[in-house]
Design brief:
The complex is a heterodimer of chains A (81) and B (142). Chain A is built from 3 helices and 5 strands, in the order βαβααβββ. Chain A is an alpha+beta fold and 81 residues long. Chain A has a 5-stranded mixed sheet with strand order 2-1-5-3-4, covered by helices on one side. Classes of the chains: A alpha+beta (81), B alpha+beta (142).
Amino acid sequence: MIVRVHLFGPYAEAIGSTHVCLEALDAVTSEQVLEQLGREHQILAPLLRSARLAVNHSFAPPGTIIAERDEVAVIGMVSGG
Amino acid sequence: MSFTVPPDPSISVVVVDGPLPPMAEASPPQRSIGGIVGSRLVFEGIVRLDEDGKRLAALNYQTYDPMAEQTLKQLATDIVKKFGLNSLAVAHSRGRVPVGGCSLRVVIESGHRSEGLDAMREFILRLKQDVPIWKSPVWEVP
């Protein structure tokens, strides 16, 4: 299945895009999505060490299973305020 | 230390486009009425002129909507409960905020200053860890 991952801030700047699409196995977990993202886009790998995934606008607890139509976003290194 | 949560604490969360309006134009917190509030703290984050020695024209704030507002609301609820606040109001900017503009305002009312000060510090620290808002510099053109 295809997982579309939204990127913001330094993540989007590093890769030059506000999203990437990953070809993932069914029943992929949030941790596996982050790992795959780092493997396929190595420029993001250092930034992903402190990142979390949000799924459908909530932080994903460990082991969260991602479905194809979920809205997935990388949240890390935020800088509000 | 534990606090008793007031029966009806007030929580207000808004994300607005551009700089926040001056305090006089913002809605005042309501819990100061009735004599139960002994402390009101106001924090304002202002865009500075320089960043790392370079001159800024503005900061551009990007929010992940609606998660930014949802996360702010959950954080405000957690902090009100943890510190037993009477009210917490937070406003954050989205988009361009020029130098000198206000991009964050937090108003906390509590029975005493101690819990209000602790709550303010923790709220801002957690905002900067958890709320999906990013800022990027807009440099001044020489």
